[in-house]
Specification:
Blueprint: H1 2-37, H2 42-46, H3 50-61, H4 68-80, H5 85-97, H6 100-110, H7 112-140, H8 144-152, H9 157-180
Helix pairs in contact: 1-4, 1-9, 3-5, 3-7, 4-5, 5-7, 6-7
Amino acid sequence: MAAKIGSGLNYAFTDLLKDIGGWLLLGVGLAGAISALVPDGLLASIFEHQNSSLLIMLLVSVPLYMCASASTPIAASLVLKGLSPGAALVFLLAGPATNAATITVIARHWGRAATIIYLAVITVCSVAFGWMVNQLYDWADLDITRWLSQATDEGTEWWGVLCAMVLLGLIFRAFLTRETLPHHNERS
């Protein structure tokens, strides 16, 4: 049992962190750029009509090759700049599921008809769920930007910085460990 736990922790802090760490850093970097460069409320004024924002985010997310680790912080920063939560959900659902690599693999293994059905289901479901999220937020009169201002007022900034530094250190360690040491499954 201890060996399995040790193996799982080793995988989590080396291979898994290396696989998603680069994507996460890319997503956080792009989210930071969006936060710094896009004026507050700009996306709300551009995407006044929420249904069109769902379709636009669908068109933006489909060709992107980005995993969920990168798209999550990007979606969060877009929402904080005025994008509707439903449009962000469309970006989160459709982007990682419909990138060119995924579509190519599905087409190769299941054929053209299955690929078209796959894309249609992803498209319809992501837009439908995005629309439902927007309806829920409107009905409940929810505003994510109010939550952010409340969270920053609580004075726990140091904890977030500490956690970010630990995560950054673990990601860099995973990259260095994997390149300098033999893989744990390889035999000498």
